[in-house]
Design brief:
Chain A: It comes from Psychracetigena formicireducens. The complex is a heterodimer of chains A (110) and B (297). With 110 residues, chain A is α/β, with parallel strands linked by helices. Chain A contains 5 helices and 5 strands. Chain A has a single domain, classed as Udp-n-acetylmuramoylalanyl-d-glutamate--2,6- Diaminopimelate Ligase, Chain: A, domain 1. The mean pLDDT of chain A is 94. With 297 residues, chain B is α+β, with helices and mostly antiparallel strands. Helix content of chain B is 32%, strand content 26%. Chain B contains 10 helices and 12 strands. In chain B, the strands form 3 sheets. A 7-stranded antiparallel beta sheet of chain B has the order 1-7-8-9-10-12-11, with helices on one face. A 3-stranded mixed beta sheet of chain B has the order 4-5-6. Chain B starts with a strand and ends in a 6-residue tail after the last strand. Chain B has 2 domains: 121 residues, CBS-domain (Roll); 146 residues, Histidine kinase-like ATPase, C-terminal domain (Heat Shock Protein 90), CATH 3.30.565. The chains are: A alpha/beta (110), B alpha+beta (297). At the A-B interface, helix 2 and helix 3 of A face helix 6, helix 7 and helix 10 of B.
């Protein structure tokens, strides 16, 4: 499934746009940055409630397809600017991580 | 031996004519006069702010409520009172077109710790705090983010990056710079990723625990060596620190998703050779080697 299709089907808001034509196969849910670094696979969707600057660094390091900030949390402008600079896609969802991962799983991202 | 070093100087000589926009803090919560003082107390505690502007419902500036107003309120045991009772008004403010030097002058002249920034309609768009000004100036004047590129011997390139303790705003910059330097070489993405994780975790360890340190990477045709060395508290029990989940990081660091006790194990897992040497009260040195999948030409 292409990232663009995931965004459309789950009503995600794009707050920083990187490459939306990448193939998404799996995902990771964690708010511990070290855990993400140790376990994320390239092309994963990363669901988190962390919104600070280092999320961009970790996302770029792990080459995740996108970061999805859940529970409608605010991401400040400096973080968005940095993400754009690094070409990292940040998406936002009003759903909490648990519910969103359920929807993603049902849509075939496993 | 040849050596060239680039000192990052992002700001240049005319930093003082920058707009106050560069130094103001955005996303300041909108406080209205009918908030209770106990909410202000919580807000200041959670957001670690020493003062916030008070506005009407449309966001127009009315006054400011600072930690000194809060102290008076607490002395009066009056935390249920509305903000309007304790806020300072009228309040000095800056319009967006003002420059950095004008902000500095105003704050110094009146000994203010903070000044709200408003647009032409008098709506609050941010606050210049003494610490945000200070952080900006420090960064402008600081030449410590030195990136040094050296060629110690034939076929070896080395980069050194300075890392400052507790600097969470620039956290990850040294390892990001390192990764960018390495990307110019034809290193396999898997090796690049492992090196990136090692460097990032090592950098975060310095930021979380030490006062300062440096991150160095050396590349030859067969391997990448990463050394992270700091002046810091040192580790009293290295084998305990190597256990996944063991941490001594304070709460505010853990809230950011760091300090979960996975840094050193992560570094070790990604290294082909891993050495750690730590002395309490002196500092810690972590050395990692990543053997390259493909030899570099």
């Amino acid at each position: 499934m292409l990232l663009r299709e995931v965004i459309d089907s789950l009503n995600l808001q794009v707050i920083s746009e990187g490459n939306l034509e990448v193939e998404v196969r799996s995902g990771i849910v964690s708010d511990l940055l070290s855990y993400v670094m140790g376990n994320a696979k390239e092309g994963d969707l990363w669901l988190t409630i962390q919104t600070h600057m280092n999320v961009v660094a970790v996302a770029s390091l792990c080459k995740v397809a996108a970061v999805i900030v859940t529970s409608n949390l605010e991401v400040n402008e400096e973080v968005i600017d940095k993400a754009q600079e690094e070409g990292i896609t940040i998406l936002k969802s009003s759903l909490p991580s648990y519910e969103l991962s359920g929807s993603l799983y049902l849509s075939g991202i496993r | 031996m040849t050596m060239d070093s680039e000192v990052t100087n992002k700001l240049g000589p005319d930093i003082l004519s920058y707009s106050v926009e560069k130094v103001m803090v955005r996303n300041i919560p909108q406080v209205t006069p009918y908030w209770q003082m106990r909410h202000i107390k919580e807000l200041m505690r959670i957001r670690r702010l020493d003062g916030v502007p008070v506005t009407d419902d449309e966001g127009h500036l009315l006054g400011i409520i600072s930690i000194s107003d809060l102290i008076i309120c607490i002395e009066n045991k009056d935390l249920e009172a509305p903000v309007s009772k304790y806020m300072t008004t009228p309040v000095k403010c800056l319009i967006l077109s003002k420059t950095l030097i004008e902000a500095l002058r105003e704050m110094n002249r009146f000994k203010y710790g903070r000044l709200p920034v408003v647009d032409e309609e008098f709506k609050v768009i941010g606050v210049v705090y003494w610490w945000s000004l200070f952080a900006f100036l420090q960064e402008a004047l600081d030449t410590s983010m030195v990136v040094k590129k050296t060629i110690p011997s034939e076929g070896v390139i080395s980069y050194t990056y300075q890392v400052l303790g507790r600097d969470f705003v620039h956290a990850g910059n040294a390892s990001l710079q390192m990764r960018k330097s390495l990307q110019q070489l034809s290193i396999d993405p898997k090796d690049l990723r492992r090196t990136g994780i090692i460097a990032y975790e090592a950098e975060m360890n310095i930021i979380i625990h030490a006062d300062k340190g440096f991150l160095q990477v050396k590349i030859n045709s067969e391997k990448i060596e990463v050394t992270a060395e700091d002046k810091g508290p040192g580790i009293s029990d290295v084998s305990l620190a190597m256990q996944e989940g063991f941490t001594t990081a304070p709460d505010y660091i853990r809230e950011m998703g760091f300090g979960a006790g996975m840094g050193l194990p992560n570094i070790k897992r990604n290294s082909d050779i891993f050495q750690i040497d730590s002395r309490v009260g002196v500092g810690t040195k972590v050395y990692s080697v990543v053997n390259l999948i493909r030899r570099l030409k």
